[in-house]
């Protein structure tokens, strides 16, 4: 496929799913809203330069967007995609990974500053100052946060490390984990931290407190992302170079199956990146950046049910039920 060629996809309705999907279109510098019943993109707005990861607010009224090509976290209404806040992290921030915590606080990596930020609830009656924590590592890209806000973890691509930040004391501990660790997900009960290292085609289970590596699992080719199912039983890696998903049983730390989304022959035409579970764990949404689509995968059967059209270069995703 030529670099400027795109795979045309028509919306397909479904009676088995509800909710709304939000997609950051990093090449188009836009934010899309997709109705999951009709499969249609119902709204698209200009966002910021090179937007990447997304997170929805606990009350479902807003979505926060990490503006990787700039210095801000921008907040939009989920109903109209109207921008209502722009939180500036300062020079060279390059915000990327983002979590909107149940407390109302936003946590985001600032890759260019080798740091993370805690942005207190952006809609309080009285404004509260931001908190910044240094990772001191190159490419602090993705982030996970403990349910009790005691700690946060980053994957540091350039330094080949995973970093734990104690959010109470500010202390930092980094350990080397594979080649180019990028994907990260904390088990729902906080008992394990899982990381995928795209450069070594592996996933790792770490003790979230000691940062000791408990288990190492071989995955498909170039596991760019890792996401744990909301039910806490499996993790899935998004294997960019072979167009598949590796399913890991968390109890045994063993690969139990693989799911072909596009397959090796189409992998570069699709270029799958971010993965996202539906809240009920029945669907996996896979962003295919090169074809401007999101594949909707049935977890039980492994079947690709639909391909949903997005804007140019859809990458980061967030979902509302």
Write structural notes for this entry.
With 321 residues, the chain is mainly β. Mean pLDDT is 95; it is low at 1-6. The strands form seven sheets. It has a four-stranded antiparallel β-sheet, with no helix packed on it. The chain has a four-stranded antiparallel β-sheet with strand order 4-5-6-7, with no helix packed on it. Strands 8-9-10-11 form a four-stranded antiparallel β-sheet, with no helix packed on it. Helix content is 1%, strand content 51%.
Identify the notable features of this structure and list them briefly.
321 residues; mainly beta; four-stranded antiparallel beta sheet; 28 strands; globular
Strand-pairing-aware structural class: mainly beta
- Beta-strand portion reads over 45%
- Number of helical runs? 1
Strand order of the largest sheet: 3-2-1-28
Alpha-carbon distance between the termini? 35 Å
How many runs of DSSP E, i.e. beta strands? 28
> Mean of residue pLDDT?
95
The arrangement of helices and strands along the chain is EEEEEEEEEEEEEEEEEEEEEEEHEEEEE
Main sheet makeup: 4 strands, antiparallel
In helices, the fraction of residues equals: under 10%
Low-confidence stretches: 1-6
What is the alpha-carbon Rg in Å?
18 Å
Shape: globular
Organism: Erythrobacter insulae
Pfam family, one: YNCE
Protein name: YncE family protein
Domain YNCE-like beta-propeller: 3-317
Give the topology.
Layout: E1 20-25, E2 30-35, E3 40-46, E4 51-56, E5 62-67, E6 72-77, E7 83-88, E8 95-100, E9 106-110, E10 115-119, E11 131-134, E12 140-145, E13 151-156, E14 161-166, E15 172-176, E16 181-186, E17 193-197, E18 202-206, E19 213-218, E20 223-228, E21 234-239, E22 244-249, E23 254-260, H1 267-270, E24 272-277, E25 283-288, E26 293-298, E27 304-309, E28 314-320
Antiparallel strand pairs: 1-2, 1-28, 2-3, 4-5, 5-6, 6-7, 8-9, 9-10, 10-11, 12-13, 13-14, 14-15, 16-17, 17-18, 18-19, 20-21, 21-22, 22-23, 24-25, 25-26, 26-27
